[in-house]
Amino acid sequence: MFTLFPQKNVIFELFEKSVRNVHEGAKALKDLFENYTDLPTKVQKIKDLEHAGDDVTHHILEHLAKTFITPLDRDDIHHIAQRLDDVLDQTDMAANRMLLFNIPQPTEEAKEFSRILVKSTALLIEAISNLRNLKNSHNILDCCLEIHTQENEADRLMQHAIGKLFDEAGDAKEIIKWKDIYQILESATDRCEDVADVLHTIIVKHA
């Protein structure tokens, strides 16, 4: 049912539900890498979180379609929803690659990527929880700045990981597998930064 009047809290509640689910996915990936046992079960757990994330994203976009007046710019709402969904998609993809490629053990670089992702998604939780009251915009901006720092760290890690891979891996197949996994992990951190960029834009618009 289309409604003219904004249900302000609905979008914020859905955003918070989405980002908490994304953070759970990041933590599950970190656990997969750092406790590399029972891989099919852990991959399925992340897949389940990814499906749950799809449902939340659908609810956000459905609510957006049915509401004429929204608490934030419609494009910003859409971009936050989609980029959060992308983070979880990449997380799920990385986990699935470990199973699909029959990886015997994760690298230290993969573990570090997962730690960065956990930090970044935790910062997104804090930033998004402050969207309800833009008087706390300084807290959002602080989180966005730290997310950018984490993404820069992921970029440096990517360069190191690829360099090490070509220096130490003798099997071309292993190089291809790990290059793909690293790119997926780095992309997940990029999508966190994308969310931070939208949040920064919202603060500028409401300044």
Provide the fold topology.
Elements: H1 8-34, H2 39-66, H3 74-100, H4 108-129, H5 137-168, H6 172-205
Properties at a glance:
about 210 residues, mainly alpha, Methane Monooxygenase Hydroxylase, Chain G, domain 1, about 80% helix, single chain, 6 helices, disordered N terminus
Q: What do these coordinates show?
A:
The protein has 207 residues and is mainly alpha-helical. Helices cover 82% and strands 0% of the residues. The radius of gyration is 18 Å and the shape is globular.
Low-confidence stretches: 1-6
Gap between N and C termini, in Å? 33 Å
User: Residue share in helices?
Assistant: over 70%
Class by SSE composition: mainly alpha
- Average per-residue pLDDT, rounded, comes to 93
Looking at CATH, the homologous superfamily is: Phosphate transport system protein phou homolog 2, domain 2
Overall 3D form: globular
Q: Tell me the β content.
A: under 5%
How large, in whole angstroms, is the Cα Rg?
A: 18 Å
What's the CATH class label? Mainly Alpha
Number of strands: 0
The CATH architecture name reads Up-down Bundle
Largest sheet: none
Order of helix and strand elements from N to C terminus:
HHHHHH
In total, how many domains does the architecture comprise?
1
How many helices? The count is 6
- Examine the coordinates and then state which fold CATH places here, giving the name of the CATH topology: Methane Monooxygenase Hydroxylase, Chain G, domain 1
Please provide a brief summary of the model.
With 207 residues, this protein is an all-alpha fold.
